[in-house]
Structure formats: C-alpha cells, structure tokens
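User: Design a sequence. Structure:
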C-alpha cells in the first residue's frame, strides 16, 4: 500500500506573456518549424477547466475541492475566439484538433463549436481531423449530436473494468457500466475508430490490464495503456507507481501474442501492436520511459486562451490578450509563428536523464495542471 503525498496547488495560471508581434507580417506557409525542426500539426484545445470526476492522478479532491477557484465564464475563450485561433493554427500547418479539458462535454453546446471547427480546411483543401477526449459520463446523451456536428471520433478514458477499482480512481463513485454505455453509443453512431485510454498506476489498477484487453478485443476499439505521468504539480507523482509500457506489453503478450505495427503518422504518441489472432489493435504511450519529444508536433491552448508548447511547461503565451486587444488575424498569425519558431521544449528527454525517482526539480511545483492545459 502506498501513501500519496498531495502537494498544494500554487496558482500559476496567470503566469503568461503577451506575445511579441513581429514587425514583418509574413503570410503563413503551413511549413513552420521549431528550433528542433519539428512542424506544428496538432492542436489540443481545453474547453473547460472543470470536471465531474476527481481522478487522483489529475484533479485530486484534496486540491480541487469546493473552495477551488475555477475560471469564471468571462475568462473562457468563446467559440468564436477558439475558431478564430484554430483558423490561424490551421494556416500554419495544424491538421488535427483535439477538444479536451477538464471534461469537455461539460462545456455547454459543445456541438456548436464542433460544427464551427468542422468547416475549417487545411491549405490543401482537406477537412481537419477533429476528435475529443472524454470521461464518457455524458457521452451516451451527446454522441449523436456530436457526430451530426462533424466530430469524427472520440477517445474515452477508462482506467478499470472492475467497478470498485474504477469508482475509487474517479473518486466520485462513478460506475463502469455508464462509461460502457457511452462507448456503445459512440460506436453505434459511427464515432470511429474509438480509442480507450487507460492510465496505468502500479499497485492501483495494473491488475486491470488483462481484463481490459479481454473486454475490448474484437470490438473495434483501440485500447491504449498510458504511463502515469508527472504532469501538473498536485498528484504526488512517484516513479515507483509507473509501470513501464514494456512490462504492459510483456504481460499482454503472455496471454495474447502481439506483433508490432508501424505508426500511422510521424509524431504519433502511441506505439502500436496487433493481436496475432486478428482480434484488433492496442497501443502503449510511454511518456515516462521512452521520451518522444523528437517528433512532438503538438501545441496546447488553455481554457482561457494561453498557448503552451509542452505539457510540462510552466508559462503560456496569452493569445486571448491579442484576440481581445483588437489585433488582426495576420498579426496573431505572425505572433504564433514567432513563438513556434523559438520552441525548444523537450521535457521528457530531460526527465529521462534524471535519477529514477525524480521529475525535474526546476519544473516541479511550477507546472500547469493537465485539466487546465488539456491532455
Ligand atoms: N476529462 C477527459 C478525460 O479524462 O478523458 C479529458 C481530459 S484528461 C486531462 C485527458 C487525458 O489525460 C485522460 O485520458 C487522462 O487519463 C489523462 N491523464 C490525466 N492525468 C494524467 C497523468 N498524471 N498521467 C497520464 N495521463 C493522465
Ligand atoms: Fe477529469 Fe479527465 Fe482529469 Fe479524470 S482525467 S479528473 S476525468 S479531466
Ligand atoms: Fe512534447 Fe513536451 Fe511531451 Fe516532449 S515532454 S513529447 S515536448 S509535450
């Protein structure tokens, strides 16, 4: 039995810079590259910092309690503001948008935003890949309207099939059966391929790896095992609670032989495996034991419009200040280009160079929370 140390949250949400607007406004080419030669392809947008779950690895209830100051409605980017920024990012090469949070389905009328984003096209005239990560508590109710609005697929987070384990992990006593209903509804309306994310914490839910695999084989859903990460500053992360993906694959392979398959695209976070008997595919996301910063083409837009270039960043760039400060799209596009071209983030690679039980002391205690920046 491990005891978890919960660290009080220092509110650093307001630590941000107002971006510099370059004097020369070059038109976007879709070919931006950062200081490590990485393009900008993937934008994750947090549409709310609120959630109806209190997963201990993300929003521990000791911190996110009734006194916690969530952002006021006026701080949030409106759908029009989000779409305006998304358009700028798409002009710079973004092809994929993931809506996240907090719990994105708590944001009222989210399907209206999906509809607005679905109208955007890449400079080559292709539609965007639009997806959503959700705890599925409201998915059964919303799957059809999201699909009708133009959402293509969803990723559902589910950490256990055993009801008692899952209720403990979400810490609001939410039952597995209702998540499964959400998954079923999403598959029924054609939100596919559906992915299921399971964060694996050694000693908490690693006994659920095989039951989860057995359940999702032959269903068309792609189950992905995520290493528990030292994201944010409140979850009391410890290396000994991380189960390396290599061990997850070993355990699965012992019951269901697996063979490796190629990534779908450069920068894909999951390493893909196929069941040898044709029962489908699984993935492992090894953010801790195998840094994949080298191909990281993701930017994150926080609930209140701050741009973060890394999940482990401690400061954002305040794009909302530009939106609400009367700047033109060309100026905002030039500011975004300037920010991306200066990007050097590679936190997971740095962490890999540290002693086993530490996350970067420099970043520790200063990082933004995942519920705010978007997973
Ligand atoms: N509420 C939605 C959900 O849970 O799917 C979307 C937001 S949540 C922050 C996005 C993803 O981040 C989820 O799949 C969640 O399991 C994952 N996540 C949160 N904290 C994590 C941590 N410490 N390590 C690894 N994954 C984490
Ligand atoms: Fe909520 Fe998702 Fe974080 Fe769990 S992982 S607390 S569901 S935002
Ligand atoms: Fe990308 Fe930062 Fe994660 Fe590296 S640590 S893969 S740069 S988000």
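Assistant: Done.
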């Amino acid at each position: 039995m491990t005891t978890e140390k919960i660290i009080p949250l220092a509110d650093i949400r307001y630590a941000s810079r107002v971006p510099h607007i370059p004097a020369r406004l070059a038109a976007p080419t879709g070919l931006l590259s950062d200081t490590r030669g990485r393009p900008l392809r993937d934008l994750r947008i947090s549409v709310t910092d609120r959630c109806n779950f209190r997963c201990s690895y993300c929003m521990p209830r000791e911190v996110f309690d009734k006194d916690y100051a969530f952002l006021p409605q006026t701080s949030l980017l409106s759908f029009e503001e989000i779409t305006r920024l998304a358009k700028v990012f798409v002009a710079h090469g973004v092809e994929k948008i993931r809506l996240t949070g907090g719990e994105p389905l708590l944001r009222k009328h989210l399907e209206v935003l999906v509809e607005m984003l679905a109208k955007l096209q890449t400079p080559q005239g292709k539609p965007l890949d639009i997806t959503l990560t959700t705890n599925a508590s409201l998915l059964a109710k919303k799957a059809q309207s999201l699909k009708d609005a133009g959402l293509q697929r969803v990723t559902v987070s589910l950490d256990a099939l055993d009801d008692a384990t899952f209720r403990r992990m979400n810490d609001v006593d939410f039952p597995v059966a209702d998540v499964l209903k959400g998954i079923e509804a999403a598959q029924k309306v054609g939100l596919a391929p559906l992915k299921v994310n399971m964060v694996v914490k050694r000693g908490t839910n690693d006994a659920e790896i095989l039951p989860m695999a057995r359940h999702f084989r032959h269903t068309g859903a792609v189950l992905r095992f995520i290493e528990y990460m030292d994201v944010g500053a409140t979850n009391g992360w410890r290396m000994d609670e991380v189960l390396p993906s290599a061990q997850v694959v070993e355990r699965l392979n012992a019951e269901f032989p697996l063979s490796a398959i190629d990534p779908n695209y450069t920068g894909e976070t999951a390493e893909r495996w196929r069941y040898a008997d044709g029962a489908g595919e699984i993935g492992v996301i090894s953010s801790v034991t195998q840094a994949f910063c080298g191909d990281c083409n993701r930017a994150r837009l926080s609930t209140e419009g701050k741009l973060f270039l890394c999940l482990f960043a401690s400061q954002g760039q305040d794009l909302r200040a530009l939106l609400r400060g009367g700047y033109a799209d060309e100026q905002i596009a030039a500011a975004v280009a300037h920010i991306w071209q200066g990007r050097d983030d590679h936190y997971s690679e740095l962490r890999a160079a540290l002693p086993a039980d530490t996350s970067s002391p420099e970043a520790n205690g200063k990082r933004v929370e995942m519920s705010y920046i978007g997973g």
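Residues 137 and 321 are 33 Å apart (CA to CA). Residues 79-91 form the longest helix (13 residues).
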